[in-house]
Specification:
With about 475 residues, this protein is α/β, with parallel strands linked by helices. The protein has 15 helices and 24 strands. The chain has two domains: about 5-255 and about 450-475, Aldehyde Dehydrogenase, Chain A, domain 1 (3-Layer(aba) Sandwich); about 255-435, Aldehyde Dehydrogenase, Chain A, domain 2. Bound molecules: nicotinamide-adenine-dinucleotide.
């Protein structure tokens, strides 16, 4: 097995409880310094078919175990992730460019919790009862079947476990297709699953590019669910093939979220929080990327935010104090540069940044563009890199219209006096919005987007509703009299 940062990482698929070598491979590079990390197996039609067959065969026994029977397996799975935490964090950071300190102090713990929290929550699922004068309705959450899990490169560990937790806990069997630009932490997750002795076929992994392996998997009619997080163009492709087979899809997509600063905001807090938007080089779907600042406080806000941004430590994400790491891939750098170039050609002014950063080949300076119009590409399209825009407004009506004036509807941030900010936040059409804060999440709360940012919600009962077939078993309270008059 090749070593990445001193840790052995499998470059095979994992199907039916066995590591299966690939016939062909793709290269995996680190965004930190371009280092070639390894070669990864690329899934063939036969690999995808074998994974689906294995997941289908494992399904009845795993479903019949019930939530209580599955709990110890999933607790062991989380514990095995914990035993590998150093390897998982170091490999994920090298592979995806995510800050090592965030992985070690936050993401790894959250990933384990993603498994155990849903495993415990599933115990309560069969308890829902609706009493009426005529009958007792036993509301069951029956496992759906074989689920495909497709996630992007910007948060592989967090997003894979966030989907695996509820899917496995509710009795489904799964196939993950990791992102080809950051496939390595998934391999370590499967080692943890193997060590936890999940029954063969319950969790399978087929590595490979989205356009080939991913498309094969998501177009298979044997799937019961597809849970996808990624870009809008890919979601449209997956949605089409899922529709062909009538497979329910959950789609968590891109964002262009407003960061609103009202005239009565705590400007210091807003500016400090604003600088956080550059975390992970703004390769974060839920970041506020369109700054909408009240005209009366514009200068003060810009000066304060600029001072916080200029203090950001940009560089190797494996160094403890680093705050902003690299972009994931040369294509991503080209994309970011293209957006900035076109925006400047259209008249945008660079307030800070606007060019690559000397920390390395894939680093781009945190950038803010002002003098942009609502209809401009830079305001309307997700950059998915450290490029933010700044617009001003003069009334609540105006800022609400600007906040809602894109095809996206994922999240938002609103700073202002609490009641005022809450009133504005209520009128922004998004799946979630943070008032005087950013990034507070809970596993029990819903997460997802409106408009082109996706459909469905993940988290708490919303995850179970998606991953289960909800069934009403109706038991009459009086002897039933068959009658054509019955409604
Ligand atoms: P992407 O759509 O290119 O790829 C996502 C995944 O889909 C990858 O695993 C890829 O291999 C796979 N894929 C690609 N083509 C496929 C196909 N035809 N069939 C099946 N699978 C296919 O997205 P990306 O560039 O990896 O990720 C960035 C996007 O993800 C951004 O738009 C970002 O906003 C979004 N995102 C959203 C959330 C959210 O929760 N809403 C979270 C993180 C990222």
């Amino acid at each position: 097995m090749p070593k990445v940062r001193g840790h052995s990482v499998s470059t095979s698929h994992y199907i039916d409880g066995k590591w299966i070598e690939g016939d062909c491979h793709f290269d995996v590079f680190s965004p930190i310094n371009g280092e070639h990390l390894t070669e990864m197996a690329s899934g063939s039609p036969a690999n995808v078919d074998a994974a689906i067959e294995s997941a289908q065969s494992a399904f009845p026994a795993w479903a019949n175990l019930g939530a209580e029977g599955r709990l110890p397996y999933l607790q062991r799975f989380a514990a095995e992730i914990g035993k590998r935490k150093d390897a998982i964090c170091e490999v994920e950071s090298a592979d995806a460019g995510i800050l090592l300190s965030r992985l070690q102090h936050g993401i790894i713990l959250r990933s384990m919790l993603n498994i155990t929290w849903f495993a415990e929550a599933a115990l309560k699922l069969q308890d829902k009862i609706i009493e009426t004068p005529q009958a007792t309705h036993h509301i069951r959450h029956d496992p759906a079947g074989v689920c495909a899990i497709i996630i992007p490169w910007n948060a592989p560990l967090m997003l894979t476990t966030w989907k695996l937790g509820p899917s496995l806990a509710s009795g489904n069997t799964c196939i993950i297709k990791p992102p080809e630009w950051a496939p390595l932490s998934s391999a370590l997750l499967l080692e943890a699953a193997n060590a936890a002795e999940l029954p063969p076929g319950v969790l399978n992994m087929v590595q490979g590019p989205g356009s080939s392996t991913g498309a094969l998997l998501t177009s298979d009619p044997r799937l019961a669910r597809i849970s996808f997080t990624g870009s809008i163009p890919t979601a449209k492709l997956i949605g089409k093939s899922a529709a062909e087979n009538l497979v329910p899809c959950s789609l968590e997509l891109g964002g262009k979220s407003p960061f609103i600063v009202l005239e009565d905001a705590d400007i210091e807090q807003a500016a400090k929080t604003g600088a956080l938007m550059y975390r992970n080089a703004t390769q974060v779907c839920l970041a506020g990327t369109r700054f909408l600042v009240h005209k009366s406080i514009y200068d003060e806000f810009v000066n304060k935010m600029k001072s916080y941004v200029s203090a950001l430590l940009i560089g190797d994400p494996q160094i403890e104090d680093t705050e902003v790491g690299p972009l994931i891939h040369p294509q991503q750098l080209e994309r970011v540069q293209g957006y900035v170039h076109r925006a400047v050609e259209k008249g945008a002014k660079i307030l800070w940044g606007g060019k690559p950063h000397e920390a390395g080949d894939l680093y781009y300076a945190p950038t803010m563009l002002s003098d942009v119009n609502q209809e401009d590409e830079i305001v309307q399209e997700e950059v998915f890199g450290p490029v933010l825009t700044l617009q001003t407004f003069e009334s609540d009506e105006q800022v609400i219209a600007m906040a809602n004036g894109t095809k996206y509807g994922l999240g938002g941030v609103c700073f202002g006096k609490q009641l005022h900010a809450q009133q504005v936040a209520n009128q922004v059409k998004t799946g979630f919005i943070w008032v005087n804060s950013f990034g507070i999440r809970d596993l029990a709360a819903p997460f997802g987007g409106c408009k082109n940012s996706g459909n469905g919600r993940e988290g708490g009962d919303w995850s179970f509703d998606f991953f289960c077939d909800v069934k009403d078993v109706v038991i009459p309270k009086k002897p039933f009299v068959p009658s054509f008059a019955q409604r």
